[in-house]
Amino acid sequence: MMKMIGVILFGYFMTYVWADGVADVVLSCALVEQGVGLGGMGGGSLFTQTPATLVLRDVTVASDESLETLTSFTPPSIPDPNAILFEAKVTSPEIPNANVLLHADCNDQEVMCEISRYSSHGSQESSEPAYFMVSINVEGVDFSTSLILQTLTLERDHSTLIQNKLNLPLSRTGTLLTEVVFLVFSPVRSLSAPLRGDVLLNCGFKQQEIPLAQQVDIEWRLQHRGKGQKVLEMKTQLDDIEGSTVVHAERRGSSMDAQVVGEGNTSLTLTKLKVRDEGTYICTVSIGLFRAQQVIQLHVTQPPHVSLLEEKLVLKTSPQTLSCHCSKYYPLDAQMEWLFLSPTDTEPTVFKDQGSLSSHRQHGDGSYSLSSQLTVPSNISPGTKIICKASHPALDAPVSVSVLVESPEPDSYWWVLGFLVISVLFFYNVIG
User: Fold this and answer.
1) Please, which residues bridge with residue 283 across strands?
2) CA 57 to chain centre
3) Going by DSSP bridges, is the β-strand pair 85-89/176-186 parallel, antiparallel, or unpaired?
């Protein structure tokens, strides 16, 4: 069982270096340690921060990438035991989609790098080899990975430098040498799926060529509005022993393909999505002594159906009411607006009086409906188009429905006039 020791690195800047077909990605970080005796009755911060650097060695560069703008990383000429400089070899296993890191700085995308020191249950923090969990996310990009680093064994002598904060031996160039032994990744950090539809939540893992262990444990959990629940749990063997897979699904319609777990695929399928399926999904993969996870945000959406109750609007001497319905949408954020387009205009105009809105009505499947009523003035010009426009996050663009204001039909006018004349004559005869 791995436990987290309170050491965290937050990445905020990056540069690049290059070699033959590979690049070294350099992250400037801050080492954050939990303070002892701080933040109590006497006040003060709970954490202390120290500048640190993380170098990812030998990140594969695509053949069509230009290396001309990449500058070489040069270790400090005089090793400093106070400097915190991690050097991690990432060739086996490779970090999936690591090329994203090569462009983040040029695209002004913030890279968040968190490092937490791990130790096996019951072992001492200063024991060797030491292990570190590294979580890397890139702002605005579907890139997320959690790496477990293992320190490399160094031959010590009287000249070996020891890192003062981490109490670990440094290389001749003053770096803390490590290698990636295990990683869990997801190509998607957030996605949307339709209500009553299906979705695939992508998650996977990689390890070194020599397996850390044969048994792999995968757990998917859902966290939403402060409540957590298990979705699916699987235990299987990498050597594909028949009958070795055990699956326990808490959520009906959730599944994983045990046949591809050996290839590092731990993705989860959910069918017939409901509103309650929305939330934060945590994919946790455990193998041997190591355990890492990825977090994926799932948004359930349903675009509204927009309709007008009235099919046509014939002009009358008194004001009339139009009703527009926005139905069966999710989430709640729906907006409705009334506009009109006169025969002489090219662009619609917003009605000053937007009428009245009903309260949101929630249906059994969790979706919502909303209605709006507009009082149309009697002096509106025939040929005017009255528009009801609805906006919603599930729509790529607002949806509009409209009705055309029509003039009264001549026949109906004369019929009404004749009816009035006959009525007047009738009452005149009765009175007379």
Assistant:
1) 220, 294
2) 28
3) parallel
Whole-number Å distance between alpha carbons of 414 and 370? 40
Cβ atoms within 10 Å of 27's Cβ, excluding its own:
25
Q: Which amino acid is at 131?
A: Y
Q: For the CA atoms of 422, 424, 427, 432, what is the dihedral angle to 10 degrees?
A: -110
Q: Indicate the helix (H) or strand (E) that contains 133.
A: strand 131-138
β pairing state of 204-207 and 176-186: antiparallel
**Cis peptide bond upstream of 169, omega within 30:** no
Taking only the tens place, the pLDDT of each residue in 311-329 is: 888 888 888 999 999 999 9
Tokens of 20: 């033959």
Residue with tokens 């906006």, as numbered in its chain:
391
Task: Reduce the DSSP state of residue 236 to 3 states and report it.
Answer: strand
The pLDDT tens digits of the residues spanning 23-50 come to 888 877 777 676 654 444 444 557 777 7
Q: What is the pTM of this model?
A: 0.83
- The length of the chain, given as a count of residues: 432
- Statement: residue 6 has pLDDT above 70: no
